[in-house]
Specification:
Membrane topology (chain C): Multi-pass membrane protein
Oligomer: heterotrimer
Number of helices of chain A: 11
Strand order of the largest sheet of chain B: 6-7-8-3-9-10-12-11
Number of helices of chain B: 12
Radius of gyration of chain A: 28 Å
Domain ABC transmembrane type-1 (chain C): 95-304
Structural class of chain A: mainly alpha
Helix content of chain B: 25-40%
Shape of chain A: flat
Chains: A mainly alpha, B alpha/beta, C mainly alpha
Number of strands of chain A: 0
Largest interface: A-C, 45 and 57 residues
Largest sheet of chain B: 8 strands, mixed
InterPro entries (chain C): BPD_transp_1_N, MetI-like, MetI-like_sf
Radius of gyration of chain B: 21 Å
Largest sheet of chain A: none
Keywords (chain C): Cell membrane, Membrane, Transmembrane, Transmembrane helix, Transport
Subcellular location (chain C): Cell membrane
Strand content of chain A: under 5%
Amino acid sequence: MSAAHPLAPEVPAGLAVAQPLPDLYPPRKAYGRIHRTWRRHPTIMIGGAILVIVALMAILAPYLWTVDPTAISTSRRTRVPSAQYWFGTDMLGRDVYSRVVYGARVSLLVGFAVALLASLAGLAIGLVSGMVRWADGIIMRIVDGLMSIPPILLAIALMALTRGSIENVILAITVAEIPRVARLVRGVVLSLREQPYVEAAVTTGTRMPMIIWRHILPNTLAPMTVQATYICASAMIAESILSFIGAGVPPSTPSWGNIMAEGRALWQVKFYIILFPAIFLSLTVLAVNLVGDGLRDALDPRMAKDA
Amino acid sequence: MPDLKESALLSVENLQVHFRTPDGVNRAVDGVSFSIQSGETLAIVGESGCGKSVTSMSILRLLPEPPARLAGAIRFEGRDLLSLPEREMRRIRGNAISVIFQEPMTSLNPVLSVGRQIGETLRLHQGLSRKDAEERAVEMLALVGIPEPRRRVREYPHQLSGGMRQRVMIAIALACSPKLLIADEPTTALDVTIQAQILDLMRDLKRRVGAAIMLITHDLGVVAEVADRVVVMYAGRKVEEAAVRDLFRTPRHPYTRGLMGAVPRLGAAERPGAPQRLAEIPGMVPSLKTRIDGCVFAGRCPSVTDLCRSHAPALEPKAPGHLAACHYAPKDALAA
Amino acid sequence: MFGFLVRRVLAVIPVMAVVGLFVFSLLSLAPGDPAALIAGDQASPADIERIRASLGLDRPFLVRFGEWAWRILHGDLGTSIFTNLPVTTMIGQRVQPTVSLMLVTLIFAVLVAVPLGVVAAWKAGRLVDRLVMGAAVLGFSVPVFVVGYLLAYVFALELGWLPAQGYTPIEQGVGPWLANLVLPALTLGLVYIALIARVTRATMLDVLQQDYVRTARAKGVAQGSVLFVHALKNAAVPIVTVIGIGIALLIGGAVVTETVFAIPGLGRLTVDAILRRDYPVIQGVVLLFSFTYVLVNLAIDLLYTLIDPRIRY
């Protein structure tokens, strides 16, 4: 005890000193910074790592021992996986491995494009709705109406109007996702408007764009980022569903949904044609969802304890 | 002098409660001992965060483990509650030991009727039927002074005022005639007039039911009014214990003296030379997440010495029945 | 209460009006000539002209919308371009499989998801919680049809326990009916279970922190009763809400699930209609699904008063 205090006075004789009590928990190990981040946000780290790998796969597709993903060959139809055809070949003799690697491009493009477009459009609509009283009623009626159409059904209905192309798929899914973002942004704006510092800014004559830029936007950023990751995940799923029922990207473009749609007819005998793209798609969506959950916990302290 | 521990209804021995938190272990209670005799009212006093509520929660074993970890012993009628199986423990909760919580507004379940919440205890511990339990619930409501008990028994908590809700809490706690009633700041959340009513009610009911009361409070006025004996806690430790009169007459620990200085006293300002302001204890309660080698009060003590900072004083008798943990507390001659 | 009821029911009207307007204007929103679009690539100019006339595309938009809405209010959803049958008849033929599938899924999913969420909240941070929540994230990440084919492959093809495809009407016996629905319901239920379990867990975590839960424990109430009576009753409103909102997932999922399991329901009808660009059918199905969704959520709003005595309209 006294070793810790070299200047401690001599203990007078007969003085009653309390005996130290045991620790009920063993002392904690000290962790380095990376280890600490890992322990706090393991989901972001895992999800981020998977996403980086998938992104590299999409960018480097031509150099990953792939062949032309659209090359048709009648002589090598429906081969099982082997050293030559890692994931086998499909009904038209196309190399499933190459198609899966190239398919990452479509999924990532659709996921991120929809997340970005829906966020921007939703932000604009939500801001107008939250700031401009007379517009709010009209916009919210429309949003309510659109939200009462199940999103996949909405996207399917929109795709039925147009020829299948990646742009149209992105647009259809975006329209289906916008109402949710608009609702979210409007909610944040309305609650911020009640805040004393925003009211003060309004009464002191700060101009509207300034208020939005300084007070509203920074506060919508965190919930919108989380929402955007979830939109990215559900857009990838939606793309695969659209392709799967034949209302998505054109069959010539390799997308994970397309490969599975083509494997559909053979699912009872050549299950691997569905299995390989399914694993890649699920892992990628899982990674985005993990990042989303991690961001939600990190950005919203109230939710963190629920994690 | 008879061995108090042997005859005690409840005796807490060297209780330690530590919590694991993201940034270290919180030693919320560290080596606290006290006992309560049948029919006695013991007050546990201290600032918020001193570990008094944690102590009461550990008596009923209501702290989730982990993050909490408990050591020591809590003997109730001779049985160590800390080693009792959960089934046995449930039979004690709300039956032999019951609690009145601090927050009457939030401590009642908003979606269950008042009658059901009182009756539940009776059905659990006395095996009453739903009908009999409701009948008893009406009687209990009448006992705690709620008008029109037959109508109120069907109502939900949000239909009652704060004072009435606390009366319902008392009715729940007393339904099974407990031997020990733990009252955790029972009046803090209430208006002053209602505070007095609730205190009167508790005193009255104690006479009728004969329960021992463990009163947890930071309000010395309440202590002086209802307690027999007082335990003063600071930073998870017991720093002083005495009969209520001894404590108020000669507080021996500097922290207790500080607490009493912080109580507004009627007419205090008129006395010549008396301090015009309410005394405050300077400084902050130390973090319980690091080990404290010396006296826990050293950081705020007006008469601190180097000895205090390096060596924690043991809790020892300073007068008959009067314990204090301070190297410099005045010590009377003790009977050998 | 009555006033609220009237107001809440009236609020459905503008929502359905927007849905109707959207569904109707789908055709006009499409780039290019809608009649040509519907007719397809191989259509002759005469075909296109015939379709244009049958859709009344030569008259002003608002007039057409008015007429269309008027007919729908009288229960006439138009005639299929492909089969020439009334859309209501086609829907009527396909209702039973879809309603069966959704009801079985709903009941099964709620019975599984709520206890899972409650246990996860109770054991928050422990292994059970991590497993349940991990499974939930996975459930959100795997597309419905992949789950369907996996289940069909394992339980129908490999193990042979259940039929892989098709639907048996309930009139032919509850046993065969249910046997055909087990795999589709599992498939369709997965995302729904994940959603409900997550919301249940989050709400229960909040409720378990409340003072009245501590009071219940201090009274000696057993763990099961603390969780499922004292806490769950307080968590009911958000859980019931998400069950209602999640119906949207069920509807979207049914379209895919019925395709995977070759169930002749409304979802299959939707997919066929889209592939054939059979517009009146698409409009009818989207309207019907949305109307059901709105009605279910209206019913749930009214249910709140029964769950929570504090809510009074």
